[in-house]
Structures are given as C-alpha cells and as structure tokens.
C-alpha cells in the first residue's frame, strides 16, 4: 500500500509536469517579441509582385509577417523575382534530363513610410529539385510544385532576415544588392543556370 507522503509526492510531480507543458505553434513569436518585433513585422505592407511565383511569395510572406495581427503600415517591402532551371542529371541515351533544379532569386528593399527612406536591401536564393519524365503534363506539374516549395522557403528566409534587422539597431543596410537588379554573379561561377523561365 502506497503511503500518504508518497501519494502527495506523486501528485505534486504530476502538477509540475502539467504546468511545464505548454503547446506553442512552431512559428509563433516568443512572449517577449509579442509587442516588439512581431508588431513591427505586422506593419509591413508588401507591394504587389508580378507573376505566379511572385504572388505566391507575397501571399506566404504576408501571412508570416501579419498572422492575423495586421496594423497600419509603417514599412513598405518591394520584391523582384527571377526563376531559372538547370539540368542536373542527363540520360546517357538521348541526352534528355532526368532531374532539374529550379532556382528562385528574390531581391528585396524595405522602406520606411514615415520618411520614405530605404532601410534594408538584400537577396534571397532558394532551390528545389524535381524529377523529369517523358510526360509533359507531369513535368509541368512537378516544375510548378518545385516553384511553390522554393517560394515558401524564400518567404521564410525573407521573414527571418527582416525580423533580424528590426530586432537590431535598424541602421540602414543597403549593400545586399543594387536597386532590385537581379545579379547572376550571386549564383557563383559553378552554379550558373541554363535558361530563364516565367510563370
């Protein structure tokens, strides 16, 4: 038979474990950020972007920045995108590709609406690989899915870079890229892609 002190100890242990367990969404801001960086992120207005991939990035990033906390805009974010393809593996017979990599390059500028000053400029590059078959419809679908994956990853990276800037002293950082000009040299000499694609 379990003694009373032992039952009390077990009850206190259970209460401690329950109090320590807190369910928190993966991308939810930390408690100390709720009235700081998170509020600043919710004040960012994203300029409409051309193209399906650009719109996908804008939608994903808008959700990551605001997440239901939309406020009067204090900042404006301008995005420009480029997507390109590279054949990775090629069949020995026929020379047809079996795998391709889609590269998505996003250049961005964050501007203050209070004084119309550019605060942050940079470039994000993401990649997504997909298999190539002999069926055109399947290839189109695989390429589109790869573009969606690259767009989601780019939106997450954009949020992290902007949040890091807003959490700092916010001194202007404009050496990331020239005014929304996409620079192939960012890809590296051994990673130049074969052709531009559009959506």
What does this structure look like?
The protein is α+β, with helices and mostly antiparallel strands. It has a single domain, classed as Lipoprotein like domain (Double Stranded RNA Binding Domain, 2-Layer Sandwich). The chain has four helices and five strands; from the N terminus they run H-H-E-H-E-E-E-H-E. The protein has helices spanning 4-20, 37-41, 52-66, 136-166, and strands at 44-46, 75-90, 97-112, 117-131, 195-197. Strands 1, 2, 3, 4 and 5 form a five-stranded mixed beta sheet that branches. Helix 3 packs parallel to helix 4. The longest helix is centred in the C-terminal third of the chain and has 31 residues, at 136-166.
Looking at the structure, the CATH topology is Double Stranded RNA Binding Domain
* Biggest sheet overview: 5 strands, mixed
Gross geometry: flat
Quaternary organization: single chain
Mean pLDDT: 75
The CATH superfamily is known as Lipoprotein like domain
CATH architecture: 2-Layer Sandwich
Can you give the helix content as a percent range?
Answer: 25-40%
User: Distance between the terminal alpha carbons, to the nearest Å?
Assistant: 72 Å
- Compute the number of helices: 4
Order of helices and strands: HHEHEEEHE
